[in-house]
Amino acid sequence: MTTKLMGTGVQRVEDQRFLRGLGRYADDVAVDPSTLHAAVLRSPHAHARIVDIDVADVLDVEGVHAVWTYDDLTGPMAEPLPLLIPHPMLTHGRTQYALAKDEVNYVGEAIAFVVADDRYVAEDAVGKIKVSYELLPPVVGIDAARAADRLVHDDVPGNVGARMEQNTGDVQAAMAAAPHRLTLDLTVERSACMPMEGRGTVARWDPDIDRLQVWSSTQTSTGVRAVVAVKLGLDLRQVDVITPDVGGGFGVKINHPWPEELLVPLAARTLGRTVKFTEDRREHFISTAHERGQVQYIEVGFDDDGRLLALDVKFWHDHGAYTPYGLIVPIITSTQLLGPYKPEVYRVVFESLYTNTVMVTPYRGAGRPQGCFAMERTMDAIAAELGKDRTEVRAVNFIQPDEFPFEQGLVFQDGRELTYDSGDYPASLEKIKALIGWDEFPAFRAEMAAEGRQVGIGLACYVEGTGVGPYEGAHVHVETSGKVKVATGLTTQGQGHATVFAQLVADELGCRFEDVEVVTGDTRRMPYAVGTFASRAAVMSGSAIHLAAKRAKEKALKIAAEALEASPDDLQIVDGVVSVKGSPGSSIDLGTVAVLSNPLRYAFDEASKAATQFTVGDPGKPPVAEDEEPGLEGTDFYSPERSTFASGMHAVIVETDPLTAEIRILKYAVVHDCGKLINPMIVEGQIHGGVAQGVGGALYERMVYDESGQLLNASFMDFLMPYVTEVPDGIDIDHLETPSPLNPLGIKGAGEAGVIPSAAVFASAIEDAESIPITAMPISPSELFHLRLTHAEETP
Amino acid sequence: MTEELLEVRLRVNGVAHDLRVPARRLLSDALRHDLGLTGTHVGCEHGVCGACTVLADGRPVRACLMFAVSAVGLELTTVEGLADVDGTLSNVQQAFAECHGLQCGFCTPGFLTTITAGLRDNPQPTHDEARDMIAGNLCRCTGYQNIVKAVERAAELGAGETS
């Protein structure tokens, strides 16, 4: 009997091609001298009116095939890009045009599009386009946006795109009645996903079949397909979008369509040539999307045990120049802020503000790191105020294991009630304390102090809504060779879907793992899909694949039962062979079952002779039964009522250098509960990567804009992402597996978890080491140094 | 104005290729677009991320910081040239598979070439030396934890071979 693969660290099947240099990323498609290459003229100004664009010098450049500005766009292409996620509270949503019309609102906004023989020539041509601008005063940063002395969009008063409030009761009354009260002012800087591969799009128009093929480095191939069809005036059936290998996403590639994702297909169709756009790193910095930037004000009322009686949060969210992704990030901050806790009364108000900077769309964590920072800083402040251990204050506020499903009384990002399905926070707390050595830390601190070294310990807890809807689907097809071809529509950016989904199929169908091949993000194979975001792939496509495999199995058993003259209930499928339980001699392999599933008139090889109409079936009945379809296939969809809630806790011990203010990580521990694990090796890999991005966000990464809206650090030389030298040397991980009752496998999402509590946990530990309140992240050594000086001045 | 094209002979993975390229063509672009060796990836085009690292006479170089014309006379090795001709993965590649040293795979070719050269210089690195060996390459997926393990595992596999 084959052992179950669910829960085992199966090695990844996709690694073989990656390790040999045989991966196929967007820029690896159509490597051919006949492919044309695009480059984009981008605004050098943060806020300006376009007075004139002169392309005369470009048209004669040898090797240039097209130069387009807004005036060359017609029909739907000349309309603003779609507002992907409208929301009634987004009263002033704005999106850009594929090429700027009259005005630019951030440095990097696309103005002109050039197609040439190669990228070098295309960039030469871009350099010859002359644009005259009338400069407008830019709005940079949350303070300037709130002050609203200048406006980003003339018709958006106060620079406010949206104002939203949710509450669970009368917060003012609860606050007034609370025995203790505190306030906090907090800031989180901008950062960005920064996948190692930037954006890329390739398109080819086939005039013989009137069909467009698009390859894009996207997190949603079906989303891109729909918008390309609408914008180009094509039927959906005329557009295929294929997501090739993608070199990381982390959120930024869920936004769509990028201007180039429309302009490249349009150029391919117009010019009748294959056209490719591959952005460079500077373009990725200034013309995709950022995240994180928020200013927060918190007022909290609590009792003598630190129990939250009233939590009143206001925050201001910088969403950049446009709002294609709606209010998802601030809504998540405002709801997921609560983490594992249950305040008596909670009120949150946010304003989502325009600035003349790159727009903001989800980055791994998607608003949760900011919410976690707000909540966990508050917890630490309460503990400090009451002189209590930080873990005790958290423990008294936990939702208890017997309280699930737990309703927070708020509406979540998907428009559904924020209801936690399951979890065990007290157990997680015990695990994280043991893992980091919380109770032993005072002795360690004393030991270090004796050596003249300064250390601190921090802890942070989070809850993450994962597996958000609306749905995903899957198609499982057993070929006559016995190979199993699986397709699901969401996309892959390195999560190992081809491996984990094959594990699920092998387990459910009973075929061999090696016989399963999984394709993701190809609209030719699965046209109904949503995309990869919100830690949803394992939950959504995993469940759909499990269900589709089950359907294929049921069908296989039915056909095999007839062939073996047995009852389906007496059959088993092991290693791709259907046999009668207890009588292994009576068997038929899945490939033969696939042959029998498809009654043929024409045989095409030896095996298929068995399926021709003179050899198979009851001549008295239709060859395909009324309630059946030919082929050994299963298709199913999974659409849950609501999200499933993963959770976890991180703890860190840091050392801060008394002279240089350098911050060293001595120990990092993670307790993680994403329900049932499919592949622990891959889940731990996700945590490792999340923690590294979290370290970056807590200690190094920020987008540095000057007052004129220029991004000063738009390169890997100046935007400091962690190398191995900056990440913990080893991350201690412990799992808790609280199954989700919402899906057949009991799983929850794992992709974003590693990054959510990082800013909070480092703030907690640095504050503990330094005895200085830490209210803004990231914190660099020089900032800590200055903080020490200021603090020393303020507290003589 | 037509760009002047230069005759260039590049030796890559033991095979000589004759090309006509403009002087400004980057080695990374020549490898990828002229020779179709798309395993070498370009992550930043300013020499910081290390994804484009190839071996030139066995030493790691950034293919995005070098012109194709400057590579004449060098014996270049790209990720496509790391496995044996019979397809058997090299120790470093094998170690990456065993240790889950990669996720999206985009930075991986640069790590593989860098570590291949690193282990040739220092076949039995200490833990700190294993970390140092990869300290010039960026990865956004793995948090480096399993890449360090892969360096140590590759050293182990290498030691197994020579013993």
From TrEMBL, chain A:
Pfam families: Ald_Xan_dh_C, MoCoBD_1, MoCoBD_2. SMART domains: Ald_Xan_dh_C (SM01008). Keywords: Molybdenum, Oxidoreductase. SUPFAM superfamilies: CO dehydrogenase molybdoprotein N-domain-like, Molybdenum cofactor-binding domain. The keyword Oxidoreductase applies. Gene3D superfamilies: Aldehyde oxidase/xanthine dehydrogenase, a/b hammerhead, Aldehyde oxidase/xanthine dehydrogenase, molybdopterin binding domain. One of its GO terms (molecular function) is iron ion binding. Residues 20-137 form the Aldehyde oxidase/xanthine dehydrogenase a/b hammerhead domain. The keyword Oxidoreductase applies. PANTHER family: ALDEHYDE OXIDASE 1-RELATED, XANTHINE DEHYDROGENASE. This is Carbon-monoxide dehydrogenase large subunit. It comes from Nocardioides szechwanensis. The lineage of its organism: Bacteria, Bacillati, Actinomycetota, Actinomycetes, Propionibacteriales.
From TrEMBL, chain B:
SUPFAM superfamilies: 2Fe-2S ferredoxin-like, CO dehydrogenase ISP C-domain like. It holds the Pfam family Fer2. Coiled coil: none annotated. Residues 6-82 form the 2Fe-2S ferredoxin-type domain. The keyword Metal-binding applies. It comes from the Bacteria. PANTHER family: OXIDOREDUCTASE WITH IRON-SULFUR SUBUNIT. This is Carbon-monoxide dehydrogenase small subunit.
